[in-house]
Amino acid sequence: MKIYREDYKFRSGTSACRWYINENDIPAMRTFQRGLPSQVTPVQKLELQSEDYMEQGVEEKTLFDLKQIDPLADKNKRFQCTVTLISIAENEQWCCRACRVCNSTMIPGDDGYQCTKIDGCSCKQYDWKYKVCFIGADETYSLQFMFFEKKGVELIGTSAETLRKQYDPSSIPPEISQWITHKFTFVVKVLFKKSVKNLEPSFEVLMIKERHGKQATLPNIIHNVSDDDLPPLVTISSKRKIEQASLSYTPQFTDIQDMDVDRQSDAWDTTKKHSESKINDDDNKNQLEHESKKLKVQE
Ligand SMILES: [Zn+2]
């Protein structure tokens, strides 16, 4: 028996399991029922939420709209959006250790790993699960979209446990990065805990509603992309497509309004230069500190 949200006891099985609930014509069931105490609560069969349910009453939103939702008030709402995956979020691992009992994240503890469940969980065993944080964009904005195990398996086609055997949590497997430049229609909901900590909301992908395939051009916006997470295939194939892309672009943001496509294509380089100059600044700073120490010694 497993427990969900402290109140609901439940039993779950895989497709290889077969359940016989309240079926009295099975001899083994009759024997089992005779052995029960006089007062028992019968088991109820729950209908799982279907994909149809997932689509009901879902509002289509642009990312600019999604950016402005209230993570608290809109905590349980589902939204639909169409985005192109443009990169993987910086400093995020693609998988995590998940507790075998309650699925919470495990962190290194005194002896081995320990579960982070708030009201305590003594389990020390874990499985690797997906926690892939893609940056998705449309013409209006870009935001983080998280794939957890179930949707990760649906997208990637293999479990995190299997991929983990080949790749480190900090190096993104090509099986994952290949989806950068692909466009999808998703049903999503806000990741409340992650969103209240950050300036912008992050979303969990609940359903991959449509796959629009690999895109020749990325949405015409630039936002928080580091050179480490460069999408491998950002080459824009023809000048004509570029013109079409800039025509469809809605000039909504003044900071990118006057940015033409040529500048965009080497924008990655600009980012790189920027980070290089930062490194240089740090070097200069170290040198200055070093010199000031020398001066002190001379005094
Ligand atoms: Zn646990």
UniProtKB/TrEMBL annotation:
Annotated spans, Disordered: 260-299
Keyword DNA-binding among UniProt keywords: yes
Naturally occurring in which organism (per UniProt): Panicum miliaceum
Recorded GO MF terms: DNA binding; zinc ion binding
Domain Replication factor A C-terminal: start-end pairs: 81-190
Annotated protein name in UniProt: Replication factor A C-terminal domain-containing protein
Record's keyword terms, sorted: DNA-binding, Metal-binding, Zinc, Zinc-finger
Membrane-crossing residue ranges in chain numbering: none
Family: Belongs to the replication factor A protein 1 family.
Alphabetical list of Pfam families matching this protein: Rep_fac-A_C
Lineage: superkingdom: Eukaryota
CDD domains per UniProt: RPA1_DBD_C
Keyword match tRNA-binding: no
